[in-house]
Design brief:
Distance between the termini: 33 Å
Mean pLDDT: 94
Oligomer: single chain
Shape: globular
Strand content: 25-35%
CATH topology: Glutaredoxin
Helix content: 25-40%
Largest sheet: 7 strands, mixed
Strand order of the largest sheet: 2-1-5-4-3-8-9
């Protein structure tokens, strides 16, 4: 398994299919890490759509999305489910940031957070405008998540 990128090192490049809700329309397209450069990016790796902790986490981040945008940051959620699952999840909870489908867990593996037979570890990586990792949290069990206050503090520290 690949090692997690170290603080200060470039994040592994990737392209994944994803979607974001725009009103009632689910806009599907490919998301490439390189296109997000120029401002901070919060990569939220979560184990599964419509599960208790993941729902609480992603709803919390949606509620605080204006706060993240105010700090210049974009948020992307990444999990192993496909786009149809992501769309149903996003519609059910009105999630307002892109959800990317890492169905082969290639990106989770590149970030060193894939768990054979289980999926991936709940993780958050904050990248700066150059695509380098500036902060990360990788959960051992994934029963809790990093709250918006913590992410906002780390994003503010980038400025």
């Amino acid at each position: 398994m690949a090692k997690q990128p170290e603080i200060g090192s470039p994040a592994p490049e990737f392209t994944l299919p994803g979607l974001v809700l725009d009103g009632d329309v689910a806009e599907r397209r490919d998301y490439r890490l390189g296109e997000a450069k120029g401002g901070p990016l919060v990569l939220v790796f979560y184990p599964g759509d419509d599960t208790a902790v993941c729902t609480k986490q992603l709803c919390s981040y949606t509620s605080d999305l204006d706060r993240f945008k105010g700090l210049g940051a974009t948020v992307w959620g990444i999990s192993p489910q496909g786009l149809d699952s992501h769309e149903a999840f996003a519609r059910k909870y009105r999630l307002a940031f892109p959800l990317l489908a890492d169905t082969g867990r290639t990106v989770a593996t590149a970030f060193g957070i894939a768990v054979p037979g289980l999926g991936l570890r709940r993780s958050v990586f904050i990248l700066d405008g150059d695509g380098s990792v500036r902060w990360k949290h990788v959960a051992l069990m994934g029963l809790t998540f990093q709250h918006s206050d913590t992410l906002a503090e780390q994003l503010a520290a980038l400025g």
